[in-house]
Amino acid sequence: MAEHQKIVILDFGGQYTQLIARRVRECKVYSEVLPYHASLEQIKAVKPLGVILSGGPASVLAEDAPRCDAGVYTLGVPVLGICYGMQLTAHLLGGTVEKAAQREYGRIAVTMDDRESLLASMSPTSSNWMSHTYQVKVCPEGFHPIAHSENCPVAAMADDGRHIYGVQFHPEVTHSDEGRTVIENFLRICGCTGDWTMDAYAQTAIAAIRETVGDKGTVLLALSGGVDSSVAAALIYKAIGDRLTCVYVDHGFMRKGESEQVCRVFSELFPVRFIRADAADRFFADLKDVTDPEKKRKIIGRDFIEVFKAEAEKLGKLDYFAQGTIYPDVIESGQATGAAVIKSHHNVGGLPKELGFTELIEPLRMLFKDEVRALGETLGLPHDLVWRQPFPGPGLAIRVIGAVDPEKVTIVRESDAILREEIAAAGLQESIHQYFTVLTGIRSVGVMGDERTYDYTVAIRAVTTDDFMTADWARIPYDVIRTVSARIVNEVGHVNRVVLDVTTKPPASIEWE
Ligand code: XMP
């Protein structure tokens, strides 16, 4: 297989390192993240056309500041330092770094003084994301400042002879108006032409799985029915066929039609060894009268693992355990340094160890959601499965407020199906990032025909968001809401009122539990 052009990103612990990788890949150039202390040999082995040094929380002036091998500057490929990476470049190459008189944080106006090379075709001034306490005071020999802000005289620097650059702002975040141009310019300077596609990723990932698993190895995967585990399953299937066993635990809280679709796809389109455990009765029994959201999540998580374990044990020993972990999972579940656990996410974190697996396969760990979707399409998964909106592991159970029973789950399932149908009919499914209904648990008085009713209130929750960490409520046209509301009260039993959730996250979360 042809080698692709690559960029190495050295990670100094910055919160945006993965975003840099993502932006580079959006420009169709493969990027690989290595730790800052990667040896020169490791870096050379990748044969990068350029190196990017990420941001990071440390001060380059600190005794124990993380440093890369200074040999990266003489590899003969362009280098771009971002924030900490720029300060480190200045420090290692003989410039000076000092504490800024005023810390800059947020969108800051940056004036581009030299709109050539790295800053080619940029506006004279644009808003860019800054977050720094230290800054470059004097550029190293051979460099000159190419941009400044009010409080930062060297907001970017360049040595066009050696092709070494630095930017104090973060071109990788969307808050930087023309950040993408900076990245594109750097890639152009590196000589990258953009030969990276999801098809190429699929080929590489399939080859890597084959190499790891070998000719005879077997893999076990917990299929949740969501996008990530489905894409992981399809990818592994392409690598090793039905030496992949997928266990699908149906807890009874899936959306309408989803379990059926999962079964169809993985028995017909990607015929893995497919095991479906129908465990709804057990989940309902264990959740009876439980109202506390965290308790509900814990019980569902525990039952899921127990059911999965029982199925896995029946299968005998398999060699590898596969997971559809993607990068945002790593952050949301608090595995990333400093990230707080807001809700205990239902996942299979400790399971592989308990089942005696020492080898994990996580072929999507470096990918963002949109990349996973693109990969799914490349592999030939159905469009509507690949574009499924996020769905919490505990499923509809946490969209019934308070105690769960089959009747209540049917109410959310049916009302959710109506909402989805109408959003699709209005052509809004791609502009609203997540939408669902919630059975609020409130009952109120209504009138139907000539009868007084005392029935449930269903809420519509719909949000737009970039990353699901913050969200705005979606402005669904009133006409669409009117249709949804009319259909829900007419078609779903025991509902006589529909309300709309108009709260942002924060302070509310997207789910109600
Ligand atoms: P919240 O409610 O925390 O949700 O604003 C943020 C996003 O995460 C999804 N979510 C989950 N996803 N397991 C998951 O895989 C879970 O337990 C879980 N809980 C919430 C939620 O649907 C939203 O997209």
What does this protein structure show overall?
By secondary structure, the chain is an alpha/beta fold. The protein is built from 15 helices and 18 strands. A nine-stranded mixed sheet has the order 2-1-3-4-9-8-7-5-6, with helices on both faces. Strands 12-11-10-13-14 form a five-stranded parallel sheet, with helices on both faces. Strands 15, 16, 17 and 18 form a four-stranded mixed sheet that branches. It is globular, with a radius of gyration of 26 Å. The protein starts with 5 loop residues before the first strand and ends in a 13-residue tail after the last strand. Residues 331-346 have low confidence and may be disordered. Xanthosine-5'-monophosphate (XMP) binds next to loops.
